[in-house]
Amino acid sequence: MTRSILRSVRLPALTTPWTDTVTADRPLLQALVRGFGGGPVHLLDPAQFARNARGFAAVFDEAGLDGTVYFGKKANKANAFADAVADLVTTDRRAGRSGTFGIDVASVGEFRQALAAGVRGRDLLITGPTKPAELLGLAVRHDAVVTIDSPSELRALAALSDGLGVRVLFRVLPQPAISRFGMNDDELRYAERLALDHATDVAMLGYSFHLSGYSLSERRDQACQLVDRVRAARAQGLAARTISLGGGYPISYVPQDDWQRFTNETAHAFHAGKQFDSYYPYHSAITGAQALRAIVTEPAPGRKSIAQSCQDHGISLFTEPGRALLDRAGITVFPVLGVKEREPGMIVVNGTSLSLSEQWFDTEFLPDPQLVSATTPVADPAPFFASVGAATCLESDMLTWRVIEFPHRPAPGDFLVYHNTAGYQMDSNESAFHDTPIPPKVVITLVDGRPVWELDRPTSN
Ligand SMILES: *Cc1c(COP(=O)(O)O)cnc(C)c1O
């Protein structure tokens, strides 16, 4: 392959003033990487997370709805984001508001971590399939809301509650989707009967769904169906008044034009001729809180909008965004160890693709890593085409299989910065593979425009 036929669609990541400031500060990146052992570091921007969360809450306000935004905690393990939720709750309480923010947890560890951050049990929502008795017991003791996934789970929770009226939502299996989560019509009927029989043990709040995929109209259709279910449940004598829309709001990682160019181009170059069947939609026209707004305010054909239906029938909404609250709230810095000058080249970074989870789902994290050089590059440098490999002995441990066009040849001591990694990418899959330490998480706050760092608060579970 000669340099002249190498080409690569550029997919530069969308940035923020915070990412611009942090990535422009080479001494800061050098100090952090050196100070924390020379491997990758994850840098977090909890202020961006809080802005994203407020954006979701504002949609409920503007639509005249009572709504709660539960952060889907599994998307990032950092304490900084749980702390940010605790701050949001406290600020709102001072303003005389409650029930605007909370955390969606799915394990005993996440529950404890949320409590330790200062989020009260009553502001927690518990999701996940068949929850262990310990988790259900915590829900009873702390007055958390439990999303029920099966009638037998409801029976177990009612026994643990024994008169404490723990609040529950019934998770609905969406039709015709095939999922291992949620209850079908028969199971829902049975659970509704159980809730009536155990009215002092469980308080049935309403219904929830969580869809995979990123379709707004499917979410709108589901929400419409759940409005009907709430009304039918009331007719049976249940005090249903809430619908949870789940999570799954799309976010954009790259600009629309670049994404269009990427999807139009069929001949992408990948290391070792690697091919992928599908990718996350790295650009969507409607993202995050705007997607929530579109779901609740734009009516499905022949129906009222969700917002209107909820107002008419006194229904409040929950939502459980994970990725969308973390949009542009974190980056990951990998130090360059070496460069193989082939055509195309191979850059080896100190770190593994375990810190870039998308690589473990038979697909690729596509946004171009940003090259931050340790030294000022030579004038008029030639572009350098390369993939990015990990510092491990696994042939398949690649951070980027795609051949990326870098502005010049990277050198040891430079950094590759992967943007927008806070949502699922940075820590879902990390392990001490090869006896390498788990990369640290560092919170960076801009004080008068200058970055000030601190280590994410350690977890004491
Ligand atoms: C994972 C999950 C979420 C969050 O999904 P995102 O795609 O990160 O918004 C919300 N609710 C449930 C039940 C989940 O399992």
TrEMBL record:
The residues forming a coiled coil are none
Keyword presence, Acetylation: no
* EC code(s) of this entry: 5.1.1.1
Orn/DAP/Arg decarboxylase 2 N-terminal domain location: 97-267
Q: What molecular function terms (GO) are annotated for this protein?
A: alanine racemase activity
List, separated by semicolons, the cofactors it needs: pyridoxal 5'-phosphate
Q: Name one Pfam family in it.
A: Orn_Arg_deC_N
Alphabetic keyword roster: Isomerase, Pyridoxal phosphate
Gene3D superfamilies on file: Alanine racemase (3.20.20.10), Lyase, Ornithine Decarboxylase, Chain A, domain 1 (2.40.37.10)
Is-annotated flag, keyword Isomerase?
yes
Enzyme class of the recorded protein, top EC level: isomerase
Tell me which PANTHER family the record gives. Answer: DIAMINOPIMELATE DECARBOXYLASE (PTHR43727), GROUP IV DECARBOXYLASE (PTHR43727:SF2)
User: What name goes with this protein?
Assistant: Alanine racemase
Species annotation: Rhodococcus tibetensis
